[in-house]
Amino acid sequence: MSTGSEDFASPAPAAAPQSPVSENDVAGAALAETSWSAESPGETSPPAESTSGVRRLFERITTELRKIYVGQDELVTATLVALFSQGHVLIESVPGLGKTLFVRALGRVLGCKFGRIQFTADLMPSDITGSPIFDMKSQEFHFRPGPVFTQLLLADEINRSPAKTHAALLEIMQEYRVTVERVSHKLERPFLVLATQNPIESEGTYNLPEAQLDRFMFKILVDYPSTDEEADILKMHRQEVDFDERLNELQTVTNPEEIVSATRQCSQLHLDDKLIGYINTLVRLTRQWPQFHLGASPRGGISLLHGARTLAAFLGRDYAVPDDVVQIALPALRHRVSLTPEAEVEGRRVDELLEELIRSVEVPRL
């Protein structure tokens, strides 16, 4: 069960029993039943042979993570979808919800290098990318890689740094390379940026520009854990435990080479033309919705496409269906649209309006 802050709206009232159910009612029900668990609702077909390996890999990763990380199913699944889709994730949450622990545990389980950058107002671009250092012995400059040269990068409180530091991250996130002194340095694959921002404190922060926001595949809203989950967390801390030791107890279940191979496999899943048309309709409708001042870019449609394909592979299918699109629609679109001033005054929420938009679109029959 997801612990994200958004609550999916209920479907429209059902019609009389003798009346046929419309496809729009089906869309509303699918949206209301969206779950970020490893099992898709109503999934009855056996895993396809071509994607069964990806599904087993996904299950191994999540099973190992659950030994130390409690709850937050949406964060876990969306992060893995982004990783296997070559995307990045923006996390909005209050402090103390275990984001650093999650990324460290993920790096341990995946067998990938982990890095963390604490963004501050005085952080310079060279502090991220690295810079040339003069070697007195050889009388030459040598490039010293910065903390961005890793595979899982936690950019903590990214909105506390100025725009020039944000810009330094743009090329890295899009092109997987760092250019210093006209020389390009490639990053190792896989490469995933998990950036966080605090929605409460605004003093001393810089809003991320639309160009930066659009680089993120998903925006995840992480809320406090449920009662049972928080009780499990307290039980885990009942004894004074060194979490470095707990992290070392986690098994490494994969490696970067297998992740890259699985990413290629996900990219080969079948996408029906009708499903592509469905994604195209959703994205284009955000630009015409009356309460949206700014709609989603074509990159939003690409994120929906890639994310639905990867999610289908996680569920053992070699084809994507509209339910996959609906499940990732909010994380893929919520940071790519902005409300009109009138909608803000009325207190409307982006997620609420996106749910209305999704229910208004006819679901294709594949």
* Individual helix count: 15
Helix percentage: 40-55%
- Detail the poorly predicted runs: 1-23, 25-30, 40-46
CATH class of the largest domain: Alpha Beta
Question: What is the name of the CATH superfamily of the largest domain?
Answer: P-loop containing nucleotide triphosphate hydrolases
Oligomer: single chain
Proportion of beta-strand residues = 5-15%
CATH architecture of the largest domain: 3-Layer(aba) Sandwich
CATH topology of the largest domain: Rossmann fold
Number of domains: 2
Give a short synopsis of this structure.
The protein is an alpha/beta fold and 366 residues long.
Describe what you observe in this structure.
With 366 residues, the protein is an alpha/beta fold. It folds into two domains: 138 residues, Helicase, Ruva Protein, domain 3; 211 residues, Rossmann fold, CATH 3.40.50. 43% of the residues lie in helices and 13% in strands. The protein contains 15 helices and eleven strands. The strands form four sheets. It has a five-stranded parallel sheet with strand order 2-5-8-1-9. The protein has a two-stranded antiparallel ribbon with strand order 3-4. The protein has a two-stranded antiparallel sheet with strand order 6-7. Helix 12 packs across helix 13. The chain is globular. The N terminus is likely disordered.
Salient structural properties:
alpha/beta, disordered N terminus, 11 strands, 2 domains, five-stranded parallel sheet, Rossmann fold, Helicase, Ruva Protein, domain 3, two-stranded antiparallel ribbon, 366 residues, 15 helices
